Amino acid sequence: MQEAISDIVWELGNQKDIISTDPEDLHAHGYSSWSTVNPDELPVAVAYPRTTEHVATIVRVCHRHRVPVIPFSGGTSLEGNFSAPYGGVSIDFAYMNNIIQVNKDDMDVIVQPSVGWRDLNDELVKLGTGLFFPVDPGPTARIGGMIGTNCSGTNAVRYGTMKDWVINLTVVLSDGQIIKTRRRPRKSSAGYNLNSLFVGSEGTLGIVTEGEWRITQPFSTLKLAVLPEETSVAVVTFPSIRHAASAAASIMQAAIPMQCLEIMDEVQMRVVNLSKFTAPRVWVEKPTLFLKFAGTKGSVKEQIQLVEKITANHKGGNFEFAKDEQEQQLLWSARKESLWSMLSLRKEGEDVWSTDVAVPLSRLADIIEVSKKEMDELGLFASILGHIGDGNFHESIMYNKNDESERAKVEACVKNMVRLAIEMDGTCTGEHGVGWGKKESLLWEVGSETVGVMATIKNSLDPRWILNPGKIMEVPWERQDDHSAAKD
Ligand SMILES: Cc1cc2nc3c(=O)[nH]c(=O)nc-3n(C[C@H](O)[C@H](O)[C@H](O)COP(=O)(O)OP(=O)(O)OC[C@H]3O[C@@H](n4cnc5c(N)ncnc54)[C@H](O)[C@@H]3O)c2cc1C
């Protein structure tokens, strides 16, 4: 690995600030306090490329030395996705953060991997485009990592997930070769759908990058959506989590085009109150649905009337609308900041296990009720929240990370929830990805034959298993020896 680092520095012309081996930097790129799992190892270096050619050089050198390469964008992923269990070089795209081209008339944008989705939207407002990019995961997530995890967010119920917004990608392959997946039309049926192969592959098949060196071959082109004429935000409370979940399923079954449909249980509402993130506002501590309506004035009015009727049928009460845009943001921030709220309540030695599953809509109320009961029986501080309109929800459990038996109980509870979701024909992860933490769950979900097909694809694109090894599936033994040899 040391030889690889020297070669990278040499081949990039001894440029300053391209490689860091600062221990704090290594820690920040191999450990995450909000991730469910963290392997013991850290990367041995962090590379800061400025161009696609830099990335290609770094990857080519690592390929030669059989050294792992782990891409890193915003660092907000939650399943140990960017951790470095086999050491290696973390590639941080911090300096590749340009919006290269906004094509207003084509409703698309060309960006580099370190552009944050919020910064992109701010820029689109500043330019007066009337457009926005609707995929909204963790507030500080960036496009490269969002492609990595095929993320979602609160808008997914209406706008779909990251895979629906990618037009093309420029990708550095495991031997340093650079490819572009397709050109810029909004649709294409030319050949294999390589976008779908790379989106959600967590950096295990290729590194998504940009092409400063050739502006016509840029990193990734994303579709944009038109900002709705009218938006309205409301909250409504329910006597039980089952009532709230059933109401959400009924809203979806009525085909009401919600922009967002989110759930938080009474514990999570208490967490928001305790954290004071939205003070001085105090929330009713009951299971709550957060609703966002969008469209023309007329259609928003119609959607609200329909939803009010449905929620009333499920004993929903205290339907409360935001009076103005500021209040809309306040109401919504309670949902968007929910993980931070939970994290802010941690005491010394405590951690939060935050995990996600998704099930078909008709099974939502059942799984949420059972999972909540199991969590409550743990006797720990734990909440349920999520993107309920997509059948996707999260458990956040506070536990003492130094207490082995407590950790084991939490792990068992999470595994039970995953098993139950799979039994209901659901998935072990609706949006956070498999990462380092859910490899066993992926096997339960799709079976060894299907994981075998994934391994065949991995083998053909990355025969030395250097790209983010140990994520999504286990590294074969012979390749583990390679990585250990590189480390030694
Ligand atoms: C408060 C909070 C709220 C969240 N809410 C949501 C939510 O609502 N919905 C949701 O889906 N997720 C959510 N997340 C999780 C997280 O924001 C997403 O997983 C997001 O997509 C990660 O983006 P990132 O830039 O932080 O990626 P990183 O964590 O840096 O990386 C994620 C993965 O992508 C790979 N990767 C990074 N850059 C590249 C690249 N250029 N090419 C190829 N692979 C790459 C990494 O190796 C890693 O495997 C939340 C997280 C937090 C902390």
UniProtKB/TrEMBL annotation:
Q: Which GO terms describe its molecular function?
A: D-lactate dehydrogenase (cytochrome) activity; D-lactate dehydrogenase (NAD+) activity; FAD binding
Q: Which E.C. number(s) belong to this protein?
A: 1.1.2.4
Q: Give the required cofactors.
A: FAD
What are its GO cellular component terms? mitochondrion
Query: InterPro entries in the record, alphabetically?
Result: FAD-bd_oxidored_4_C, FAD-bd_PCMH, FAD-bd_PCMH-like_sf, FAD-bd_PCMH_sub2, FAD-linked_Oxase-like_C, Oxid_FAD_bind_N, Vanillyl_alc_oxidase_C-sub2
- FAD-binding PCMH-type domain ranges (all copies): 39-218
Listed under GO biological process in this entry are: lactate catabolic process
Protein's recorded name: D-lactate dehydrogenase (cytochrome)
Q: What Gene3D superfamilies does the record point to?
A: 3.30.465.10, 3.30.70.2740, Vanillyl-alcohol Oxidase, Chain A, domain 4
Is Mitochondrion among the key words of this record? yes
For this chain, the family text in UniProt reads: Belongs to the FAD-binding oxidoreductase/transferase type 4 family.
Keyword Oxidoreductase appears in the UniProt entry: yes
What compartments host this protein?
A: Mitochondrion
Check the record and name the Pfam families matching this protein: FAD-oxidase_C, FAD_binding_4
Query: Which SUPFAM superfamilies did the record assign?
Result: FAD-binding/transporter-associated domain-like, FAD-linked oxidases, C-terminal domain
List keywords of the entry alphabetically. FAD, Flavoprotein, Mitochondrion, Oxidoreductase, Transit peptide
What is the catalytic activity of this protein? (R)-lactate + 2 Fe(III)-[cytochrome c] = 2 Fe(II)-[cytochrome c] + pyruvate + 2 H(+)
